[in-house]
Structure formats: C-alpha cells, structure tokens
Amino acid sequence: MINKNIFLLFFLALLAIAAEKPNTLRIATYNLENFYDRYDDPYSTKDLRSDQNTRPKPARELYALSKVIKKVNADVIALQEVENRGFLTEFNNSYLNGLNYKYIVLIEGNSSRTIRGRGIDVAALSRVPVYSATTFQYFKFPLNEKENSTAAFSRDLLYIKLTPEDFPMIHLFVLHPISRRGGAFAHYRRIAEAKGAVEVIQKELGDKKDPWIIIAGDFNDTPKSESLQTYLKIPGIPLKRIPAYDSKKKSYTFYGKGGSYPPDTLDHILVSEPVEKALVKPTADIWNDKTAASASDHRPVYITLKPPKKGK
Q1: Which end of the chain is more exposed for a tag (fewer CB within 10 A), N or C?
Q2: 81: left (phi over 0), alpha (psi -120 to 50) or beta
Q3: Domain range for residue 188?
Q4: What is the pLDDT confidence band of residue 214, given thresholds at 50, 70 and 90?
Q5: With bands split at pLDDT 50, 70 and 90, how would you rate the model's confidence at 3?
C-alpha cells in the first residue's frame, strides 16, 4: 500500500510539473532551393527554361528536406522557392506525415505570373490556425525616384496572421527579394523592396499597440547590408534581427553548391519587441548537418517562443 501511494504521489507531481510548463511555439524559415515539381504546366513556359534551373527537385533531395524539416519540428515554417501549392501539398502529405501541418499557405506571386520570373513563390506550413493570408504582389513602390519609375516585389510580401493558443495574434511576413546575381541593379532593387515592405508594414500595423511581428525569409543580403537595416528602422515599430548560429557556432545560412559562391548569412528572422521578450533564448538556431547539405543550398533558421504571462 505504501509503495502504491508513493507511486501515486510521484505521478501526480509529474502531472503538476507538466501543467506548469508553458507551451512553446517554434517558428522557422527555410529556402527549399528550386522546389519544382515533375509535372509540365500547359499554361506556363517556365518548366522549359533550363537556363533557370527549373528541373524537378530530385527525390533524394525531397527526402533530405523532409528529414531536415522533421528535425527542426517547427510549428510554423516560412518557405521560399516553392513552385506551387499543389506540389507543396503533395510533399506535405507524402513526406511530412506526422508533423500535422494542417494549414498550407501559398499565393502565386510575381515570379509565377511575370514573363521573366522563375516561377518560385513564398509560402508557409503551419500547425497553428491561420486567420488570414494577404498578398502584396500588386503593391508598387519607387524604384528610381529620379526616373520616376516604380516596381513590385520580386516574388511577394506574404502577410499571414496566426492565432496560436496562449499567444497574441502573430503577424508573420514572408519575403524573398531578388538574388544578388543581378549585381548593382539587384542591390538597389533589394533596398527599394525593403522600403516598400516598410511602407506596407507601417500602414498595416503602425496603429497597433505592441504587435507581435515576425519577418522571415531569404533576404539575399547580409546582416549589415543597407536593405536589411532598412527593415530595422520602421518608424514606431522597432524590430530586431535575431542572431543565429548552428551547433558549431557558425552563422552561415547559405552554402553555394560547387564552390561558386562562398558561405554567407542570407536567411534572417526579424522580430518586434514583444516577440523578442518571449524568446526562450536570445539567439536563433541554424540546423546544419550532412542531410541539410544535400537538401538545399540554404539552412533553416528558427526561434522558439514562450507564451506571455497572463495579463500582459
């Protein structure tokens, strides 16, 4: 009888500890690298553009992606370089079974609907309920004020409102500006896109009190670059880039295949002050192992949040 009572007390103590432990929320960003399907789209010529490397993503790379995504085990994962919603749904059902990503967000953007685009979109997979998803692909911003020219986001600025349990609404922006392969033009284009995004975010959330904002994606620029710094200077909405490191304390998120480009830090997560205060630790994590190296030329970056105390 004594042993049974001791066991019962121990079991009740474990339940009490579990009840006190807050639910955490993990949010990640990951560039899947040329996530193209194996089907020919009769309404598009992009599948035929061998110069743009639109070949189907090999099965071995899809399997590697699934292993990496399972290791990260994010509740919400922002994605870049996804061809279409159908392929992402197929991948989720076939390779990510068990991760419970009930919500798939992808709105085809400018890269898919313009002639020069590669047909890649930004997207997200989520266990967390999605309240809404908004595209800003039609939003125009100044490109060259002297020439009075305007431009649109290279892919999109995807705005997703999330309603996780025990957390305030999270305003997630997923982006993927133009590649640095475009030289000086691309450099100034990324700065223009950043200024355009700042205008959108300020219009959408400038009047909100302490909004939980996360901007995540492949910025195609480094932490100290002018384009990234532009996001950190939104009037009335202070944001901070969360420094990220892998298990070896390296901060690289991009590893060019074939040695064509040196390793660099291009994938970032920016957060507002309430999100920063909710971080389980002050840095983000980069998942980097042999499997990740065969899955994509980018590495996933993720943060983990704890819910705010009640009344705050």
Answers
A1: N
A2: left
A3: 26-305
A4: very high
A5: low
Residues in CB range of 160: below 8 A, 6 or more apart: 105, 124, 126, 130, 132, 133, 134, 171, 172, 173, 174
Task: Answer whether 172's CB lies under 8 Å from 131's CB.
Answer: no
Residue 231 tokens read as 């996001």
User: What CATH number does the domain containing 180 carry?
Assistant: 3.60.10.10
Dihedrals phi, psi of 175, to nearest 5 degrees: -140, 165
Pull the structure tokens for residue 295.
Answer: 């899955």
Q: Is 141 helix (H, G, I), strand (E, B) or coil?
A: strand
pLDDT band for position 18 (cuts 50, 70, 90): very low
Is position 82 within any domain? Answer: yes
The pLDDT, as a whole number, for residue 66 is 98
| 129, pLDDT greater than 50 | yes
Q: To which residue do tokens 């100044």 refer?
A: 142
Q: Please enumerate, as own/partner, the contacts of 110-117 that have beta carbons within 8 Å and a separation of 24 or more.
A: 110/137, 110/152, 110/153, 110/154, 110/155, 110/156, 111/154, 111/155, 112/44, 112/46, 112/83, 112/84, 113/137, 117/46, 117/155
How far is 104 from 88, CA to CA, in rounded Å?
8
pLDDT in tens, 216-250: 999 999 999 999 999 999 999 999 999 999 999 99
279 found inside a domain: yes
What is the DSSP secondary structure assignment for residue 69, as one 8-state letter? H
